[in-house]
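To: structure subgroup
Subject: Chain for Friday's discussion

All,

I'm putting the inputs and outputs inline so they're searchable in the archive.
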Amino acid sequence: WEVFPLHVVFTGTLGHITATNTESWTGIGFSDDQKMSQTDAVLGWVEKSGRHFLMDTWIGGYTSPLLDTSQDIYNKTGRIENGATILSFVRKRTSADPRDYSFTDEKCYYMMFPVKGGIFNPVNKKIRKHQAIPNISAQRICIRSCGAGEEITTTPEPPRIGYNVAIKLIQLGQNYQAPAPGSPDFDLLANTVSDGFNRALVKIPGFYKMSVKEFQQESDNVIAKLSLELDEAKLERGRSLEDSQESVVQVLN
C-alpha cells in the first residue's frame, strides 16, 4: 500500500486465480484480535467480463458480512492479470464510521487476507463462505502518518439526483419494534431492505444506490426512511425528471 497524509491506497495481488477459482471473491480485513468476529473488511471480485465490484463491510460474527451503511472506499479498480485478481481502493486512515477501524500513529491492527474466498453472485452481491481459512498477519501492522507530502488526487463523483423515500414494512412479526441505529438488528433489517430494493431499482436508468437512513415505529408497522441516488449523466437522454419519478413509483409499487 501507499500512505498519503490522510489516505491509504491499497493495491494487492490478492490470490492466484486458477480456472477453478475464477468465481471466488477476495479482499482484506482489519482485526483487533486475529479473530473473524468484529472485523472491518473490504471484499470484492472481478467477473469474467472484466467488471469489478468492491464493498466496505463489517463482520460481526461467524456469519455473512454486512454491507456498511456508509461506503467509505473510493477510486476502486479491479482486473485479472496473468491469472491473478488485482483489486485497488482508497480509504482514509481514520474514519468517523463506527464500522471502520481507524489507523492512527498509536493504533495498529492485524490484517486478514482471504486468498481463497467462496463463490459470489454478481447480481445480488451475495457471497458464500471462504473455501480456505484466511491468512492472518502474525503481528499488528501499523499505518502511520507520513507527515506533509503529496496529497492523493481523487476522482470527483458525478452529479447525482437524490430522492427521500418512505416505505411501510408490514408483517415483521408480533410486537416487532423498529431497531436502533448501530444495533445488529438494525444492520440485518437495513441490509435486507437495501438488497431487495437495489435488485429492483437497477431497472431505473442511472441508478446508483438505495440506502437505509433510519427506521421509525408506526403502530404495529415499521417505516423505513431511505435515500435513493441516481447518476444524472446516465439518465436516458431526453427523459424528463417527471418520467424518472414515475419510474421510481412503478418499481416501488
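Points worth raising on Friday:
The helical segments are 184-201, 241-252.
Residues 3-7, 11-20, 149-154, 240-253 have pLDDT under 50 and may be disordered.

D.
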